[in-house]
Amino acid sequence: MASVPSLASTVQQRLAEGLSAALPEAGSADPLLRRSDRADFQANGILALAKRLKGNPRELATKVVESIPANDVLKEIEVSGPGFLNITVSDAAIVETLAARAADARLGVPLNEAAGTTVIDYAQPNVAKEMHVGHLRSAVIGAAMVEILEFTGETVVRRHHIGDWGTQFGMLIQYLIEHPHELDHKAEGAEVSGEEAMSNLNRLYKASRALFDADEEFKTRARARVVDLQAGDEETLALWQRFVDESKIYFYSVFDKLDMDIRDPDVVGESGYNDMLLETCRILEESGVAVRSEGALCVFFDDVKGPDGNPVPLIVQKSDGGFGYAATDLSAIRDRVGNLKASTLLYVVDARQSLHFKMVFETARRAGWLNDEVKAVQLAFGTVLGKDGKPFKTREGETVRLVDLLDEAIDRASAVVREKAQDLTEQEIAERGAQVGIGAVKYADLSTSAARDYKFDLDQMVSLNGDTSVYLQYAYARIQSILRKAGDAKPVAHPELELAPSERALGLHLDGFGEAVEETAAEYAPHKLAAYLYQVASLYTTFYSECPVLKADTPAQVENRLFLCDLTARTLQQGMALLGIRTPERL
């Protein structure tokens, strides 16, 4: 189905036609239309135009208004101030535009005509290590951007660049060789829980670290094992794979709790690029992008200097022949551009790594892997803080385990659901508690601009009041309750009816859904979609308190208000789904 033009685009079109009829010399001038508190829309473009044409802006504005023929969309245009146009659209135009949205499965959200292929690098846990609160934002923001970009027509390739390589594996593998039953499961053949897998890995990590620090001979054997791993020794690789597989059991259990879909083919860790590292170095050195400095292969930048004022290079290969993160990241770029045919590389990575990625992207540009056709973007995010505004730690000063955080959110949300629940079974309360709790954690993250730090405050997150996902979920559930009680009355749009002020406000905002999704996708800014949805729920709450739905004055008014309810629910449900949040039918 063709995309549904929004009221804003229709008004823009009418104004542009009026402008060129009244002022042919203006060319295709932009009316600069925006939403307004004084009317439905305000156009400010005539001020700049008058300056260019050396005319009186109020006179020009009046001329433009007179040249717009009477039509069924624009109810009133008033020239105000120095030459603004205040525009009110007709009630019929609002309802007809919403009816067209409602008839479209995509709710009028257009597909991006310039869609390409985006590789999103997000949710990057480390093998054999616990996931902590620091892993939350990359996972949640990345998963939302996957949904949003796919919905706008982008081909999205997910990449989970897990930390599955490096010197620590020599220590772990050597310890497992000398203590072969440390990764065995309690009951062979039984399904292993994420908790059991993680406690195995934790125990082994701590024991091997203690031995590594205390025993010089073990340290020597562990270092030799790293060489075996990098050389591709079969026994060493098989044991390394055991660590990866055990870690995946744990990762997947956490992602499952986060209600996120992670698939095996999407997990390509650091090890996935090992075979490319030498060639990446060779290409960079032969092309002169990288140079040898004190035995290491480095890329230098004029504008990147350390505290001492000297240039800080990107080290691609160390002087001992080993490779750092830069070699892996550059090889990943080569793979994603060359093999996956990406037009955009999106990295959902902590803002503290911004300098590293700035240098990596600039190196890739110099090498020709990034260019005008292929761009790389870091969607940098801030830190999760405790209620006190300091980095989030346990009382003992430890990093907070992600699983503990999610469990607590689900417990808190279940208590809120239980308190409000009238006819829910215990099983339903548990199910809704998980949907509300995980939704609360995701929404708190996504409703904050990614670049900012945010406070992790569970009391606030599961509150029924304020800008929370629970508030949005309850608005959706309330509408479902009304639709269930409507009996034979069905949602039907009635353009002939006059709208109450709160109906107009809700309708005009619902019409902006397509633009909100487009802007969110273009700017990689999920908080803009969250803000739009919160406004939907707020305007609906006002409408609900001011306009009786099932007890409206006439059957046509009942149908029209049910239509507004239904479109609001569908907009909330689709918008929340794009953020990765469930909308339960009953709460």
UniProtKB/TrEMBL annotation:
Gene3D superfamilies the UniProt entry points to: Arginyl tRNA synthetase N-terminal domain, HUPs, Isoleucyl-tRNA Synthetase, Domain 1
GO molecular function terms attached to this record: ligase activity
Catalytic activity: tRNA(Arg) + L-arginine + ATP = L-arginyl-tRNA(Arg) + AMP + diphosphate
This protein's record includes keyword Hydrolase: no
Compartments where found: Cytoplasm
Domain spans labelled DALR anticodon binding: 472-587
Entry-linked InterPro entries: aa-tRNA-synth_I_CS, Arg-tRNA-ligase, Arg-tRNA-synth_N, Arg-tRNA-synth_N_sf, ArgRS_core, DALR_anticod-bd, Rossmann-like_a/b/a_fold, tRNAsynth_Ia_anticodon-bd
UniProt domain Arginyl tRNA synthetase N-terminal: residue ranges: 9-89
UniProt keyword Cytoplasm, yes or no: yes
Motif annotated as 'HIGH' region, chain positions: 125-135
Oligomer and partners: Monomer.
UniProt-recorded name of the protein: Arginine--tRNA ligase
Organism annotation: Streptomyces hydrogenans
Record gene name: argS
